[in-house]
Hints:
Chain A: Keywords: Receptor, Signal. The structure holds two protein chains of two kinds. By secondary structure, chain A is α/β, with parallel strands linked by helices.
Amino acid sequence: MKRLTIILMTSLALSSTSVSYAADDYPSSPIKLIVPFGAGGGTDGLARAIQRTIEQDDLLPVPFVVVNADGAAGAVGTRQLLASDPDGYTILQIHQEMFAASAIGRVDYTPADFEPIIQVSEACMFVAVSEDSPYTNLDEMFSGINEAPDSFRQADDIGGATHFPSVQLMKAADVQWPVVPVGATSARFSSLQGGFTNMALLSPLWLERAAGKVRPLAVLGDERYDSAPDVPTAAEQGYDVTACLNRRYWAPSGTPQENIDVLADAIEAAANTDEVKEYLAESGETLKIVRGEELRTLVDEEYATFVEVADIVKGTPTN
Amino acid sequence: MISAYMEVFSFSGMLWVLLGTVVGILIGSIPGLSGAMVIALTLPATYFMQASDALVLLVAMYIGSTTGGLISATLMRMPGTESAIMTTLDGFPMAQKGEPARALGLGVVASFVGGMAAWLVLATISPLLSTLAVRFGPYEIFSMAVVALTLIAAISKGSFINGLLAAALGAMFSLPGIDPVSGALRLTFGVPALDNGFTLLPVMLGLLVLSQVLIDSGSTGDRLIQKSDSSNKVTIKIRDLKDNVWNVIRSSIIGTWIGILPGVGGTTASIASYSTAKGFSKDSSKFGTGCSEGIVAAESANNAGSVGALVPLITLGIPGSVVTAILLGAMVIHNLNPGPLLFAQNPEVAYTIIAGALAANLVMLAVMWFATPLISRMMYIDKAWLLPPIVIFCFIGAFSVSGRIFDVTAMIGFACLGYLMSRARIPLGPFIIAFILTPMAEENLRSGLVVYGNSYLPLLTRPVPLFFIAVSLITAVWAVWSEIGHTRKVNVPQS
């Protein structure tokens, strides 16, 4: 037993020394990409599309491996990244769910504990009401809520990435409404269909999927959708709120900048291939590359908007 | 539509179906490896396949794994998959009585009938049913979960208090994690690993599988199984068929409907139909002792539930379970647009899935029919050969949930708990049922409270919840009443 411990300790020591001056010949061993959600979802889909392209086009000299670590709304996988060495051999792909978990105080890490590598995609939500709803724009909806506040419910994922923009929307409109814990987009759609809730934020994919069953009132992005040029943005209607999910790659803070650049180059090259672009289009997402200082600033600004409404999110009138 | 069937039933199509079904059955029969796991692992490999082949392969794996779970449940009292939990209750006692092939045969035929019933629904009226299913709201699902929870009283025969104790423990262990309504953490005691709560797979593997391994390894040598010569042939007895006509129809309907409800699933389907079968049975005391009705109810409902879960997937693009979520991902990867427009835009995809479900069911029946005589011999193999690999697979299974040692540790803890509970004659069934149903009941009750403005009244004014609440009240009162009667009967001769 003692001998085994010594062997283990030595090999551990060896591996950590080899890591510390790895920056010269980075990457020299396989790179692990943690997907903190289950197989088959949007995060998993993009991660695997990127992985496939990196392998096919030899964008990295070493294998690029995707590992699913589902649980606690992304916190399980994110913690695994936090516990790994900041050497660029373990990275993570997650969207604003990370900000949500941190702003609500469910985890003890913040975006400052990570180094953003690159942002690849963007999918801005839209405000959807059921097709038989009387509302055709945001103003009508807000004044409707003001008149009969007891009969309006939103379906959402409590404490999740879309709950924060929902509260921002409440603040911008100066009305409050109860939020029903329903879950992911598909569950929200089914709740709208069943008539149990009146409004939900849906991902752009559902614009086509739910065509004829829900009515889009506003796009929560900077620009209108190409596929639905008639639907105005919330900002155009006087409410400056956006709700976009951006898929970003992260490394633990302290990862050497050279290694981050190597990774960002490979992922950017992969994202720009036709294969990944086609995947994004099919998933209702758009390619939006942001990296370097610009990304850090964007992350900090966005996280600040989450923190700003965190208290209301925690205390949202539900029960 | 015809061309989709032709493609699936072509030679190459059937090869994928056969491969998927056999792999599914194998994986499903191994405690520790689940259908969801193998389907998730296969998904990346299907990128390079034709979309229709990929979907057929995955659907076949899904259906095969649901059936495979009954093998280890029947022969070893270890559910191979979650949905086979209820099958252990009667499957193992029957096998222990020397009729493993009869138990397996009943399970296989019931699985087939359940699967075919749900397939019929899938192929004919799925759009209609899916619109009905979304009208099944939080209070409807809550009251349904309550009915299923009252089953706890029903399956803890003669040990009512112990059953309730087990159920309370199960409910308690399901609570830590993220609060479904506030999104905040609860009962994690500052342990970060607990913020995902205890997941079903490690709990089930520890409590039901590893604890059984502990029990079995303590009793090597004394073989409890009676051996009979004719026991390895699959013979479907006329009496078994006659006894189960209504049971299999009822269980298939319950299973299909519960399967269609988004987010409920095959395990709940078999819990609900088992309790219903027991309620309708003339002699309910034989449940849990190896009766055919128990096996048939559990197995027809879980397969019907699995196929039923395809209904909201292909009609609305709503995945109701882990596996259907992966299937949805597979469609997106292959550039198909799942959702209400699937039938309009890619009808061949919808029909490929439907045809694949049919083919997988037929292949499953054929494979199991010929394999059962061989498989049932496993019953007589010295356990020393079977237990070590099962332990290894359990460790792999628990670790693979999200790559954490925590889940493995939790599994070992639940194994010890399960062993102690068995020794203390506290039944494990109520624990696992409460563990599965409590979160579902809680989430839906609390969602319902938000929907209905903190009012419990709709539970009594909406017809479906009212019906379910009445059923569960009657069940509970009846269970307590018969328990009192039972204790009296036991006590009288003593005094």
